């Protein structure tokens, strides 16, 4: 099972030019090494503050672009991992071992990634196989069969 592990932003991480404390970077580096040695990491990265981003809002055929920053820092994403683990419980156990990703109280969200077999009730086997083949053409494509 693949899980997106989402590090929520904080007011501090959303500040322009904010960088993590060097000690935290060291601790996170060690944690990431453990994840890599365990063979569960498919992708990982941190994100710049939302002030450098944008949102595209949809309403029917209309598209509206809203530049950051966005309010409610705790609802924003500061970074992520994509993991391949056996269960949600395993993902939770790994997250519990993670250093606090911010100097203040923080939160990490774990969300399961859809796999093609999840779409079996609404897609034919031929459609599923076509989509699997197309995804396999993507560079750095993670397992999604």
TrEMBL record:
Alphabetical list of SUPFAM superfamilies matching this protein: Dimeric alpha+beta barrel
Family: Belongs to the YciI family.
Descriptive protein name: YCII-related domain-containing protein
Residue ranges constituting the YCII-related domain according to the UniProt record: 1-116
UniProt-listed InterPro entries: Dimeric_a/b-barrel, YCII
Pfam families cross-referenced by the UniProt entry: YCII
Organism: Granulicella arctica
